[in-house]
Each structure stands twice: as structure tokens, then as C-alpha cells.
Amino acid sequence: MFPKKSVIRYDFPARGSMPPVKLFWYDGLTETPKIPGVPDGELLGDLPEKPSPRRRQGSGPHATPPFTGFIGDVFDFDKFQAAKGASYAEAPTPDGSFFIGDKGMITTGTYGEETRLIPVEKMRDYQFPQPTLTRSPGHYRDWIRACKGGDAACSNFNVAVPFVEWMLLGVIALRVEGKLEWDAAKMRFSNNAEANKYLKPTFRKGWSLT
User: Fold this and answer.
1) The whole model's pTM is what?
2) pLDDT 10s digits, 89-114
3) Which of 71, 156, 160, 179 has its CA 20 to 30 A from that of 86?
């Protein structure tokens, strides 16, 4: 059984010219946590949206719009202001990401959409920079393009494997007491033998993973 609510802290050491990073993973939030420097009532992560009619193929006002090559919504300050005070059928539960840097704060929705500075008032006259990274055509098109010998998938195994590795270490942290120290070179915890027992699955007699 896993907890309905948890907070996991990760500490990544400095690497080369990159400074150390502290990351908090909140799971099961029912309200946005209080964060120093964030004004009361500021919306972080996902923004509420009015429920939209169910999309369908074909033509008409509720038909699925043609693919434009862009995934996710780009934050629009005027649209955000117009939506203030509107009644919504269902407000989103706290979700998304929040970055605290030396010069300011940024929040995004669950999938990186609606990226904006905090306080949001800083977005009033903000001009987004020109894209420097190739935009994803979407999960499925991205994968098919890579299979056909095109650009590598945006989250190929070189990216996904180390990401999933550190993320799953937090799952083990939920099972043992105290701080865990991970030795990435040896692929084991250096300070907790009990935690190391969870690194590989245990199979019943007669079963194996090949």
C-alpha cells in the first residue's frame, strides 16, 4: 500500500558548471503548498478551464481542430485576465511544476503548458523568446518519426532512463526510514542495506525475468 499523500525531497549535487539542485515531489495534494515569495491566491501549475463540449471527428463547431504542430497551450495574459472571477464546473487539483531560480520563479501545467512567471503580473508585457528546441509533434507522431529514421524521440531512452531512475528511488524512500544516499556509479544506496533490497524485484519460485 502506498500513502495517499507524500512529500519526497531530492538533493542533486553540483555537476561541472551546474549548481546543486533541491527538488520536492508532492503527491496527493489537495491544496497548493505555501511557498515563500508566492503571493496569496496566486495560481500555480494547472489553470482552471471551462468544460468544453466533447470533440468529434468531422466538421462543425465541436469538431476536432486540425493538427497545427503545437502541443499544449501557451500562456496568454489577456485570456487569463478575462477568465478571472469566472465560474468553473470543476477547478483542477494542485498539479504541475514550480521552479525557483536566482532571478525569479516560473510555473507550468502538468505537461509543461501555460508556462508563466510568478507573480503572474510579470506576464502582462512579457514577450516569449524565439524557440531554440525542436517542437514535439505529439507523443505518437514523435515516436513514429523516430521509428522511421527521423529525429530521435524527444524523450528517448538516453533521456528517459536516468529520469525514471531517480524518480523511482523516491518510491523506495517511501518504504524506509531516514535519508538515503544514492551511489549512481555502483547503482546502490551507500547508507542503507534495507533500501538496497528493493532495487531488484523478488520473484516467486519457478518464475524469473529474462
Assistant:
1) 0.77
2) 456 678 999 999 999 999 999 888 89
3) 71
